[in-house]
Specification:
5 helices, 3 strands, mainly alpha, single chain, three-stranded antiparallel sheet
């Protein structure tokens, strides 16, 4: 069961990366823009390659690497001694959620235009939390054996 939950993240994370995390508009008549992880990285890449790389690392590389390493543990390709390292990767992905939430709060505080959270932020948060839960349950399962 844990193996299937973990492998489902290989599908859910990419959906979350393209899903709208926020919807922003300067004024009602200028239209609205959906903001996703991918569009954010793309926009950042044009102005700040370092920050774009950092966000890509937190949002894409860390969760994917963690999911793949956990799958390797479930399949017996890696030992359970790798589980502590996976906890660090999960925290990196949580840092990305914090940054997104902080940006939304800051944008709302400016008072110019509108920003609304999208379903993608909930999906991405769910994926990160599910990944952390599967890791913790895997740790308990490995200790029991």
């Amino acid at each position: 069961m844990l193996k299937l939950l973990n492998l489902s993240l290989l599908v859910l994370f990419p959906v979350a990366w393209f899903a709208p995390m926020a919807n922003a508009g300067l004024l009602p008549w200028f239209g609205r823009t959906d903001i996703s992880v991918i569009t954010s990285i793309s926009s950042l890449w044009e102005t700040d390659v370092f920050l774009a790389s950092l966000v890509a690392g937190f949002a894409i590389v860390a969760p994917t690497l963690k999911t793949l390493l956990l799958a390797a543990i479930h399949l017996g390709w890696l030992g359970s001694n790798m589980l502590d390292a996976l906890a660090i990767l999960a925290k990196l992905a949580m840092a990305d959620i914090f940054l997104i939430a902080l940006l939304i709060v800051m944008a709302k505080g400016v008072g110019i235009g509108q920003i609304e959270t999208g379903w993608g932020i909930y999906l991405f948060t769910f994926c990160v939390m599910l990944s952390m839960l599967v890791t913790e349950l895997t740790k308990k399962q490995m200790k029991a054996h």
